Amino acid sequence: MSAPCSEALTQGPHQEEFEQAFSRYHGGLPAFATSSGAAALELAALLIRLQPGDEVIIPAHTYVASALPFARWGARIVWADIDPGTRVVTEETVAACLSGRTRAVVVVHLYGLNAPMDGLVSLARDQGIVIVEDCAQSLGASYRGGRSGTHGDIATYSFHAQKNITTLGEGGMITTRSPDFAKWIPGLRHNGHRPYPEDRARYWSPAMSNVDFDLENVWPYNFSIGEVQCALGTLLMSRLDDINARRYRYARRIIESLAESCPELEFQYIPTGSTHSYHLLCAKYDTVGSATRDDLIRILNTEFSIQPVVQYYPLYRYPLFVRAGMGDAHCPRTDEFFDNMLSFPFSETYSDEDIAFLTSSIQSAVESLR
To answer: pLDDT of 96-114, one tens digit each?
Structure first.
């Protein structure tokens, strides 16, 4: 008597359940789980079929993973500046970067706030350009009633350990509005495999049926995610709105408590019609006299044991991109923000005492620098 076949530990029923829950949350868009948010971005770059010399517009102020896949495919990265209040790109900052070689725009919803997608989508459609929404930090946030990632052609998400929800340290998701892209994604993330026949097909997503993976000059990856991770992802999707609501309440308490006492701190502006997931709690410090952002960080660290961080280094300053000939940029708002920004430690697990301590410590540190 043969032993029964064990349940799949990857590419199985929990992955399908996770993808279906994610799809429902995003209005029915096809969703495909990946090993990381960076893997989802790699698939996005592959789907666009970039050619050497093509240009991709990317915010200069973002995490490096937003740009690496597109540069790896040989595209020339053109850096877009940010709006000083929202700290994300706008139709105007992207339009300034357009050329006849522009193939795609990567719109990063940084810190948890959506970029103004109406104008960006209209601009892209007029130019025949693909929009990739990088929603690594904005899962659950919305723009004019639509979930983050439901406006462009492709959207990518991250479940890294530092995100609002995580699938055991790493994990990602890619969604798309394009039926053609949706047809290719399952095989491209898993070595070009076609679906198994008959009884083994129950371990595979229905989206994988009738797919031909012979794409010229395109080699598939293995960006599979484990079943245990997917099971956790499904559970946490059911808690996402509660987690984000708690982060929003806590962030607004901190920001509003500091509004009058610390006018030197300028937090991210939320336009009407947008919500914020508050993945991070960042502010620009308007220096007073000779005091600097670094002085504020030093005082918070040494006197209150609070460690703010600085993020994200403008990508055109990275030696990696400079050596590749992509170090030229005119992004004065990015430079000004980065040189004066700090990100405060923040969590939805804070107690009332934690929030009070963080707020009073920031107030004391700012006042001491006046």
So the answer is: 999 999 999 999 999 999 9
**pLDDT digits 0-9 by tens, 105-154:** 999 999 999 999 999 999 999 999 999 999 999 999 999 999 999 999 99
Q: How far apart are CA 296 and CA 307, in angstroms?
A: 10
pTM exceeds 0.70, yes or no: yes
- In three-state secondary structure terms, 107 is strand
Residues 345, 96 contacting (CB under 8 angstroms): no
Domains of the chain and CATH, by start: 13-237 (3.40.640.10), 240-368 (3.90.1150.10)
Angle, helices 352-368 vs 240-258, to 10°: value is: 30
Alpha helix (H) residue ranges in 305-351: 319-323, 332-338
The tokens of 234 are what?
A: 């499904």
The residue to which tokens 């052609």 are assigned: 153
The predicted structure's pLDDT at residue 288: 77
Residue 298 backbone dihedrals phi, psi, to 5 degrees: -60, -45
**Length of the chain in residues, anyone?**
370
Phi, psi of 226 (to 5 degrees): -80, 155
pLDDT at residue 207 tops 90: no
Residue 84 main-chain phi, psi, to 5 deg:
-70, -25
